[in-house]
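Quick one:
INPUT:
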């Protein structure tokens, strides 16, 4: 077993903090643009629906196909980035998904949109593990968790927070929704050029080389961990809840509650801003109250607030507040399950595999199939029924979380202390 490298090693004393900050900013922006390009289709869909004669089921399919491709390629490309390095993958995939987002504005049919979105999912899924790894490698070990949390939170902030506002405001100054997609490619191309200029390929450390020479643990041993299975099921439920909401609520607000485009953009932005807060809040709270308790409270909070949202009329301020709360809890759950719970559930040497399995399976089934199912529900039973589907996912996730084994270090130490004291009292 290898011990962790101390923080005060010579390598740490030579740490380049300026490079760390540059890398965090660029890859945080990069991951934020992944979110923007992924989710900008939702607030634009009411306009696309009229021009391309699309229906609600097709909206769910457009959201779902990208998630499925993302999940598969996030799992597959992690080992590839370990072999060939991060920089080439990051630059190529960022250019690719930026150009593909622009091409969405030229699509003239549902079939062409589906193809573009599927290939976007491949590029964005490949970008994800390489970018998270590169941020970790550039970070001082004592700041690695914070930096990766900041990077991942940009997905919610830009993709689900600012994207609805940006898209709906641009519609006021450009001729049509086609132009919004084409403009969205520009920031990604700029950031890709800056990554190509700034990012260094990380040389293999002595410890990583030694580990590579050891017999690799078998990936199948993941399935012997109870919490890996439970985390996979629970994140699937959480994603089914929040991704159905993210996909369907923009159209629900316009078609059912009859908000105008700008009001809809304001309300939907709550998903991103709430998710930004939840990315830190839920996982951070779990350090003190335990992973299981944090999961149960977050599922309960998201369920209660989504129920209130579904029974609220056309009041943009109240809708924003309720949706903000739903997102704090639901998107916070994604970080909790794919971060500390998956990490602590992993067998020795399989942390990255555990995280990839949990998050990838969640993307494929919760992020991919659930929005497609929601599109079918909306088409045949009405848009309000999609909120009921999302509620069902959140309730199911709470039930699954009841069976989690507590792994938070503070809680485990407290439990061990209580057990030791109890044994002493019994002996006395």
């Amino acid at each position: 077993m290898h011990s962790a490298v101390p923080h005060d090693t010579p390598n740490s004393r030579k740490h380049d903090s300026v490079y760390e900050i540059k890398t965090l900013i660029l890859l945080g922006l990069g991951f934020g643009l992944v979110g923007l390009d992924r989710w900008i289709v939702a607030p634009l869909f009411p306009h696309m629906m009229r021009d391309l004669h699309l229906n609600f089921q097709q909206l769910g399919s457009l959201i779902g196909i990208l998630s499925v491709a993302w999940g598969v390629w996030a799992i597959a490309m992690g080992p590839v980035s370990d072999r060939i390095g991060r920089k080439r993958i990051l630059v190529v995939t960022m250019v690719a998904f930026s150009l593909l987002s622009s091409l969405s504005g030229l699509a003239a049919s549902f079939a062409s949109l589906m193809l573009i979105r599927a290939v976007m999912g491949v590029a964005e899924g490949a970008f994800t593990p390489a970018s998270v790894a590169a941020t970790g490698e550039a970070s001082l070990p004592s700041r690695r968790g914070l930096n990766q949390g900041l990077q991942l939170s940009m997905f919610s902030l830009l993709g689900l927070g600012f994207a609805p506002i940006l898209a709906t405001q641009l519609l006021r100054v450009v001729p049509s929704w086609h132009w919004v997609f084409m403009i969205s490619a520009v920031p990604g191309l700029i950031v890709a050029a800056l990554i190509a200029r700034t990012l260094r390929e990380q040389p293999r450390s002595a410890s990583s080389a030694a580990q590579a020479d050891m017999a690799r643990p078998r990936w199948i041993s993941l399935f012997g961990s109870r919490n890996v299975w439970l985390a996979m099921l629970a994140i699937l439920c959480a994603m089914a809840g929040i991704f159905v909401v993210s996909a369907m609520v923009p159209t629900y607000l316009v078609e059912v509650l009859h908000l105008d485009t700008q009001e809809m953009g304001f309300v939907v932005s709550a998903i991103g801003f709430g998710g930004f807060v939840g990315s830190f809040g839920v996982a951070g709270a779990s350090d003190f109250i335990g992973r299981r308790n944090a999961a149960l409270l977050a599922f309960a909070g998201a369920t209660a607030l989504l129920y209130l949202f579904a029974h609220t009329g056309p009041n943009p301020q109240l809708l924003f507040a309720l949706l903000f709360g739903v997102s704090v809890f639901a998107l916070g759950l994604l970080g909790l399950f794919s971060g500390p719970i998956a990490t602590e559930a992993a067998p020795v040497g399989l942390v990255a595999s555990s995280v990839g399995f949990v998050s990838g399976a969640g993307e494929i089934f919760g992020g991919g199939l659930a929005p497609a199912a929601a599109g079918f529900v909306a088409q045949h039973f009405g848009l309000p029924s999609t909120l009921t589907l999302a509620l069902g996912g959140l309730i199911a996730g709470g039930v699954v979380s009841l069976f989690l084994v507590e792994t938070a270090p503070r809680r485990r130490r407290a439990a061990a202390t209580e057990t030791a004291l109890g044994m002493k009292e019994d002996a006395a």
